[in-house]
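Hi R.,

Here's the chain you asked about this morning:
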Amino acid sequence: MNKYLNGMLSGLMATVALSLMMFAKDAMGVMPQLDVIKMLSSMIGMTQFLLVGWMAHFLIGTVVWGILFSLLVPHLPGSTYMRIGISFGVLAWSLMMVVVMPMAGAGLFGLNLTPMAPIATLVLHVIYGAVLGLVYGIDADKSVKATLNSPGQTW
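And the predicted structure, written out as tokens:
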């Protein structure tokens, strides 16, 4: 599979995992003030349309982060795809904390929402990154094995 398609598929799976964690957080009533979907909808200027926030969430997680991950894999620290994915998740979290949160009015590291915002979002991004790396590694490992087993190769 093309590395960009692999990145987007991996980003989609990681975004689904992240979204399930967000649903669980909401269902338990944990940190209701940390509502990323509402924040994204608001940043787009469509606060009353949460579907727009969900669409942005999936677009960013699947396309933007997925393709960026596929480009950065060789340059990120980690000895396994999962560890590389976690490194990427921490990088994405850092950008969210210093760019997106202030733009959304949540302050640096989202501290205007709650003191727990940086920790909760870090955990979510680490999970996102782990899933991203694991799924990406499945196809990447297949590609390496296919290359090693292709006719005419002498290893």
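Residues 105 and 112 are 8 Å apart (CA to CA).

Let me know if you need anything else.
M.
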